Amino acid sequence: MIITRRNLFRHVGVGAAASVGLPSLARAAAVERGRDMLRPDAQAGVPVRLHRNESASGPSAMVVAAIRGAAVTLANRYPDGPVEALRNKLAALHAVTPDQVVMGAGSGDLLCMAALAFLGSRKKIIVAQPTFELMADRTRRSGGEVAAVPLRSDYAYDLDAMRSHADAGTGLVYVCNPNNPTGSLTRRQELEAFIGELPSTVYVLIDEAYHHYVGGSSEYASFIDRPLNDPRVIVTRSFSTIHGLAGLRVGYAVASPETAALLAGNGVPDNLNGVAALAAIAALDDTDHVRTSATRNADDRQEFCNQANARMLRTIDSHANFVMLNTWRPAVEIVEHFRKNDVLVSGPFLPFDKYVRVSLGPPADMREFWRVWDLLPVYHGMMTM
Questions:
Q1: Does residue 269 share a domain with residue 232?
Q2: N or C: which end of the chain has fewer CB within 10 A?
Q3: What does the longest C-alpha to C-alpha distance in the chain come to?
Q4: Residues 40 and 67 in one domain
Q5: Is residue 161 one of the residues assigned to a domain?
């Protein structure tokens, strides 16, 4: 490896960081030396990004090689060939026909297509509170109605309450499972019953952006891997999370051919670039990277909870690559404290006004998170709560 001043500073930083903080962090640093990814942009004034649920592992070496090759051969070409190849690969993977797969520039692009397709004429969307805000924002901007239903006390969707809002004016129900920002699950059996009891004109979009992080929970099953025979159900996935392609913007939806056609009809032609499509194909092929990243995320999530417990903090049980942390004080103050110390976290999320959402980053970033947390004055009110 060529030793540059920047690389030298990185190696020095690893050793220094391993020597501070709680003992378990130091032990973690010792075993993490081989994979201790200090931020490639680590320099003064560049914040630690723990606010966007980005992959801590990044794309695999196989994917990086595919990106480099595609940049040379495809940058001057329209993306129809690679995108069609990706669509066919996804169809084969999920045992559906290619006309059931809709491609998007990230799953957010597909959510916007769904808003256009199923929420016109001032229709209503039913969502949880809190959840990923894009669908609700789109609906409000178009003059539609948003029925936001608080989560249950176990942080699952309150499907009974959501069902009570469904009527002839409802166009879509949005379900993020695992939910963002809580990382919590809603039971598959309950979702099936809920969908079956909705009016026949109501579509359901199930956002599975964090599917690969769930693990072996008996309460969860993907609606792509175990589909319902119901043309109203749309399932979206993203390459931004476990595959590490957030910067390339690749997502897809799986639905019945008729519903997929409605969805695609509200998209933009050539919305996915060819380099991104070939990178996604390589990501699907590198199953070892997906498996390793999922295992690493589970370990990192447990370590985060261990560090929280050591500080008498509480978290919501997460099945994703982020954790909701109860700070015992206004989240806006915590977010600002971290921002001033060049660490970005997310919050508040109503009604969780004392929680922040922390993405699970590389080990050096997580050590920095806890270092900045420990700069906060001790909040004695925690002891009585």
A1: yes
A2: N
A3: 66
A4: no
A5: yes
pLDDT tens-digit profile, the chain (385 residues): 333 333 333 332 333 333 333 333 333 333 333 334 444 444 556 799 999 999 999 999 999 999 999 999 998 999 999 999 999 999 999 999 999 999 999 999 999 999 999 998 789 999 999 999 999 999 999 889 999 999 999 999 999 999 999 999 999 999 999 999 999 999 999 999 999 999 999 999 999 999 999 988 889 999 999 999 999 999 999 999 999 999 999 999 999 999 999 999 999 999 999 999 999 999 999 999 999 999 999 999 999 999 999 999 999 999 999 999 999 999 999 999 999 999 999 999 999 999 999 999 999 999 999 999 999 987 655 544 4
Residue 321 lies in a domain: yes
* Residue 266: domain span: 61-285
Q: In what order do the strands lie in the sheet with 170-176?
A: 101-104, 251-254, 233-238, 203-207, 170-176, 124-129, 145-150
Distance between CA atoms of residues 126 and 212, nearest Å: 25
What CATH number corresponds to the domain at position 351?
3.90.1150.10
Amino acid code (one letter) for 35:
R
Q: 226 and 118: one domain?
A: yes
Among residues 285, 317, 351, which one ends one of the domains? 285
Q: Say which residue the tokens 């891997």 belong to.
A: 225
Q: Kindly state whether residues 180 and 318 are assigned to the same domain.
A: no
Domain boundary among 233, 251, 285: 285
Total-model pTM:
0.86
Q: Are residues 276 and 343 in the same domain?
A: no
Query: What is the domain count for the chain?
Result: 2
For residue 181, being part of any structural domain is answered with yes
- Pick from 2, 251, 272: nearest CA to 132: 251
